[in-house]
Amino acid sequence: MVTxxxxxxxxxxxxxxxxxxxxxxxxxxxxxxxxxxxxxxxxACRMCLVEVEQMKGRLIPACTTPVTEGMIVRxxxxxxxxxxxxxxxxxxxxxxxxxxxxxxxxxxxxQNLAYDHKVNANRLSDEKFHHxxxxxxxxxxxxxxxxxxxxxxxxxxxxxxxRGALTFINRGIETxxxxxxxxxxxxxFCGSCISVCPVGALLARPFKFKSRFWALQKKASVCGYCxxxxxxxxxxxxxxxxxxxxxxxxGFHNGQLCVRGRFGYQFINSEKRLQSPLxxxxxxxxxxxxxxxxxxxxxxxxxxxxxxxxxxxxRMTNEELMLLKQLMTQQVGSANIDHSAGYAHTALTEGLFxxxxxxxxxxxxxxxxxxxxxxxxxxxxxxxxxVVGFEINMAVKNKDAKLHILSDKRGKLxxxxxxxxxxxxxxxxxxxxxxxxxxxxxxxLATAAASVAGFAELAAGLSAFAPEQVADQCGVSxxxxxxxxxxxxxxxxxxxxxxxxxxxxxxxxxxxHAAANLAILAGKLGKEGSGLLVLQxxxxxxxxxxxxxxxxxxxxxxxxxxxGCVSGSIKTLLVAGENPLISYPNQAKVKAAxxxxxxxxVADLFLTxxxxxxxxxxxxxxxxxxxxxxxxxxxxxxxxxxxxxxxxQSRPEFKVYGDLIxxxxxQAPVTPxxxxxxxxxxxxxxxxxxxxxxxxxxxxxxxxxxxxxAPALQVESGKLALLTGAALYHCGTLSQYxxxxxxxxxxxxLELSHADASRMQIADGAVVTVASANGSVxxxxxxxxxxxxxxxxxxxxxxxxxxxxxxxxxxxxSVTISK
Amino acid sequence: MPxxxxxxxxxxxxxxxxLFKKPVTLMYPEERPKVAERFRGLHxxxxxxxxxxxxxxxxxxxxxPAKCITVEAGEDANHDKFAAKYEIDMLRCxxxxxxxxxxxxxxxxxxxxxxxxxxxxxxxxxxKERLLEKK
Lengths: 819, 135
Ligand code: SF4
Ligand code: SF4
Ligand code: SF4
Ligand code: SF4
Ligand code: SF4
Ligand code: FES
Prior knowledge:
The complex is a heterodimer of chains A (819) and B (135). In chain A, helix 8 runs parallel beside helix 17 and helix 18 crosses helix 20. In chain A, a hairpin with a 2-residue loop joins strand 11 and strand 12. In chain A, 27% of the residues lie in helices and 19% in strands. Among the domains of chain A are: 75 residues, Ubiquitin-like (UB roll); 140 residues, 2-Layer Sandwich (Alpha-Beta Plaits), CATH 3.30.70.20; 190 residues, Dimethylsulfoxide Reductase, domain 2, CATH 3.40.228; 99 residues, Barwin-like endoglucanases, CATH 2.40.40. Chain A is α/β, with parallel strands linked by helices. The radius of gyration of chain A is 28 Å and the shape is globular. Chain B has a 3-stranded antiparallel sheet with strand order 4-5-7. In chain B, strands 1-6 form a two-stranded antiparallel ribbon. The relative contact order of chain B is 0.21. The chains are: A alpha/beta (819), B alpha+beta (135). The interface between A and B is medium-sized, with 14 and 14 residues. Bound molecules: iron/sulfur cluster (SF4) (5 copies) and FE2/S2 (inorganic) cluster.
């Protein structure tokens, strides 16, 4: 600790603190423009100048100068004020000062500083800047005339996003922030640069001229896309969500968001939102009142028993899932309930449940930056959970964590400094993890686990998984595997991460066993910064598991329910928020089921492809309109409150299912708060004190070693291996209604290697037909460096080019490609 | 004791004096008043280069104490900001003139127009078209 004096106040701070940090502790406000708590000190603007007794004769920038013992700092003497004023005058010399038409007005650091320092005239005069304004992309407007060259955008894109899309170009007065070859910005569109820009040089185009900052109500909420569970602030005006507002103090991620969270909000007030219930009459869906629609549903559900079934989306709140579960199991008397196609949650419900005794991952996202070694299974973890990806970037770049990636394709994470990537053949991840486990056992790196249940069986069962044996079949050298196992065992704190979701059928219970085995064997559980993290697809995937929205005893799972629809044993199907026709594998099978089932009820925000087939469509609310809780992937329970009132006649599902329960003679909890207390997994959490940032529910583990079954996967000779997955800009099918996300990634594509492309003479952007034994689909080819020869990749979100016409749920599908 | 007739004479003097002065009463509506230059009557949006000068900065609706101004900005073909909607509810306006004072681009003024009576409430909503300065 170092003691120093700032404006006559004595403070004690860590020895690596800067004067600015110390001033904060002392409660002294030093103005800043280029400094940001999330970024490394830079010292570009000289707003933070202070006087230091020991360094007389010049002014010292507080944000870059480390403290020393006995320092005496004065933050607002006459020379300091004079210098700051001059800095501002210089900054505004070439600045357009077009605040009336600048969206940053009211939220602008330059405005605020000019006001604070009473800079109402300029002693200097010069020409204004004449940079061309960049309107070349749909999301970010870049007006370099307003730029103050603080470098925050450049730094955040490099230090946190690790994209490096922006940089300083030219020198002196010509300096500006440029892109690659000064061309149009082409990047991840996470908008991090906009969020930190102190002025109006970077602005969100979807929000352009929509409102003034001061006229917005700022409502804290939780992003409704992926399981990362980022806190967001919604900017609301006239009962409409107009934008997301940056709050650097929000959540574990300090306000960082990905493209979906920042720009995908438009679905909330989309014109496509359903305005009223629809009922099918004479073959047509026509508008109807709530009573009529609900009565119809009640008449179908009454006494339906096991001939009824429900498929729900893990985007619903915990309380809504609770109610729907109660409705189906108690009032209707059906055990047939499931979510996520029945398999996307099995890594938890079966995998970790057997391996760790609890259907939840033991580690938290905040462990990433505390870890020494990160083992990421599938480079897609970045695309599926970008803000988790930011944490990985920071762990590697700032905290010196080692990054090992085991994946069937390359990805952005592989480009991080010192990342080691082992590219394996598609579908061989379990065999590889088994080989790693075998190395741990054989090399006596797992002695601590010898007493764990199942050790002997595992050791015996792994006999066929020696690295030399699996090397060829998996396409990874035995030495590399041994090296990885040793590095993993040697790391003090090691964390394994892998994504799960509808598009990742290989990430199932077996993979969860295999990953858990490694963590158990090497003794990595139960330590901070160490263990296992399963990245779940949807905002409430963990909640759906915790609530137990899975088949009740003797019930059918999602796939069996669909089969039941075809065979006739399921007569009434309630689909709550899922869009199986697009997102579940095997479109033909889903279509047959939905066509066949006697009565289909769909509750959704939109008339989705699935809803178009329904007999009754119930319009329900988005996350911005309801109350309840979501549980993020690391069992962080987060509360949401309505930011706007319900759109059209839509109702929160909590009310819809509550009404159905009452109509069927049951008693439903009256408020979400009451429903919350009935969730056993969250016993001990006080609903009233929950916030958007969340509270961790406990995960008590009881490790057991389970022998994972490695699937035998073979790609038919002469064919390519098709992998499904998620695109960075999308999450499930919901993002199809978020205009921002669609603007930058409008359609499906097929990613293939240069080798395959040149062999088949397929040009980048050409439309190709992908065919499997089950069907075919036309996709735009994207020739990329990510793919290995013989492996192609397609994201699954898109209705217009649904990959499930080809893919039937296999981890790897053999396909042919023709022009 | 002062002369009791003095005040009466004084008063009569004033009365007689007025007999020979121009009358103050206006025969409205045949006769029209000439309002002062600083009179705060109906607003007008100033026009320059055939366009409203207003850049839809939202300062006037922000400052308006009666909350009677509605502005909605739009983006024109040159990506510039303009008032796609500009409306004043004259039933609520208190003619304080703060809006004129707040305007950073001198796009708004108050005219001498004071005859604002009308039959329907909706007629008091002055849209952008109605407010544009008449040349
Ligand atoms: S960046 Fe700030 S100072 Fe510059 S025009 Fe915009 S609001 Fe005004
Ligand atoms: S949007 Fe994100 S990726 Fe793109 S330049 Fe900004 S910070 Fe970088
Ligand atoms: S664009 Fe904004 S964040 Fe980037 S250097 Fe300029 S002022 Fe700073
Ligand atoms: S989509 Fe996921 S990572 Fe992106 S902002 Fe939302 S919760 Fe965060
Ligand atoms: S203050 Fe002036 S420029 Fe701004 S909205 Fe009102 S009239 Fe238009
Ligand atoms: S804030 Fe210290 S130099 Fe910019």
